[in-house]
């Protein structure tokens, strides 16, 4: 089946007992077995079966199977949030004294996890310029345990050279982790370009309606865990082979950290997936139009959208993202006051800390997602004080344009 069909039918042929064509919500904590021996066998891995929803759940398994198919991976673990996905992957790979290389200009929560939380445990992160591929190879040393990027930095909007970074990671035998939240498998399957692990915040485009927080980890099958420097995973690979990393996560890290999704949320993600392809096409189309409209507006100081012809990433997005450039853009009106007045004047677009919703959403990253970082630190992360981030929705474009036009005029009124 092709991706558009898999998103609707993948790995679920209907519920044979009821005839339901949607995946049932198995809202349970645990699963009963008739005999003590049966449950002991499931615990011991001698028989398949569900034990406890913190480890696995049938509704969540259906979501995991569908995401595995859509990303062309070998397996998936769905999590309670995007941050839980990233934290689980990283906790599975690093220990005190290890280092991470991450692109700058990525989600503030991920920066905080790497810098503050992992920093407290003695893990150091080198943030490098996503656009300068050489910086990734220069930052590698014998303590480096993973390279992390976002397909399009949120909110930096840089598009790293994924195949080139994958090659660098491969040559040094370091797992390459790619956050595909902003692009989704409908724009890119990072595994095809050499990524080893894909993470998602499914709260965004996959859910698509702002109704549930979730995340996912997909192993693409590209990394040879039997030959890696991770002793516990290497040991597991004797029995679990290519699934060693996912088995290690599910049975130890994920189980211990407790970042499982609620079955209801897995159901909502499955529903979102069914319409993802159509929504992504419209998000990208509207974002391209809005970027061009803002670019042509003389009151707008700058626009950052990789699909614009003068973007340094224009050629790369054409090659990597199926000819599309995503639904996210940033722009500036010159200073923070104008950014605030613009946001306050919007009538249709909502001012909130989410992206990937069907609705157009805006936020002032400097005073919100990045508020805990100094202006100098924000600058290094690609965040400026006048920046407005827009997650372009799937409304009629004319309505979005009219809303932005009147809000820009109001933002500048005081000056005139
Ligand atoms: C690119 C990216 N990755 C990860 C996350 C974290 O996801 P969640 O909010 O689901 O924990 C976000 C949240 O905004 C994000 O934008």
Describe the protein in words.
The chain has 416 residues and is of the alpha/beta class. It has two domains: 3-273, 3-Layer(aba) Sandwich (Aspartate Aminotransferase, domain 2), CATH 3.40.640.10; 277-413, Aspartate Aminotransferase, domain 1. 41% of the residues lie in helices and 13% in strands. The chain has 16 helices and twelve strands. The protein has helices spanning 3-9, 36-43, 58-70, 82-93, 108-120, 133-139, 162-171, 184-187, 231-240, 244-257, 263-274, 276-295, 314-320, 336-345, 375-380, 397-413; strands at 75-79, 99-103, 124-128, 144-150, 176-179, 197-201, 215-219, 302-304, 328-332, 350-351, 361-363, 387-391. The chain has a seven-stranded mixed beta sheet, sandwiched between helices. Strands 8-9-12-11-10 form a five-stranded mixed beta sheet. The longest helix is centred in the last third of the chain and has 20 residues, at 276-295. The chain binds pyridoxal-5'-phosphate.
In a few lines, what is going on in this structure?
It contains 16 helices and twelve strands.
Which characteristics define this entry?
alpha/beta, Aspartate Aminotransferase, domain 1, 2 domains, 416 residues, single chain, globular, seven-stranded mixed beta sheet, five-stranded mixed beta sheet, Aspartate Aminotransferase, domain 2, binds pyridoxal-5'-phosphate
